[in-house]
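Hey, sorry to bother you again with one of my protein questions. A protein chain has come my way and I'm curious about its shape. I'm sending you its amino acid sequence along with the backbone structure tokens. I owe you a coffee for this, so here goes:
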Amino acid sequence: MADTLAGLAGQLETQVKALRGAGDDAALLAAARDAADQIERSCGARDGDARDALMMVQRWTFNAAADCWPGWSVSDKPINQDNLLAARELAERSLRLVRTLEIGPLREATGVWMVGAFNLALGRYEEAISMFREAREHYVVASAPGLVLLTEGYVAIARQVGKDQASPGGEDLDQICTRIAAGGFEDGHEWIAQRRTVLDVFARRNNS
């Protein structure tokens, strides 16, 4: 038994990490959720190092959710709706902690983006676009111009995949990729490749 709340959180984070990459998304999500519950229940009684513990909860809930997002690569594996919903709940939980702990606009932007990414995966295109636009504004505040362009790319993807469900207008993905390429960003080529993978993943799902 750990002597401190942060020590307990560290033990639980190690357990969650052990499930990452094992291929069982449901088990990973359940473990991350249950571990977060355990820490948050303990915060009132053992709050001396609560911030450190909650920072770990924020990290592992985000990472577990991110691991289960289907947009990272093209796969023949069916997208499990229950896992998507559970992962989005974890992403929302992580975002709440970012805001409660006041970690800053960059982390808040990434947290908002992740919730939007799950809305995209769930076919909730208008909600996804709204979240991506919110993330963009946080990246502007954080002075992260490359990430501003990345979120604009996600808006374009949601519009293209959503078709009639998403609002028209704005640049398409090719135009945004051209702007990324012209920006001279160190990871620009990888960013462009990933955006095109995301479009392929969700366009395939809509056409299946």
The chain has nine helices and no strands.
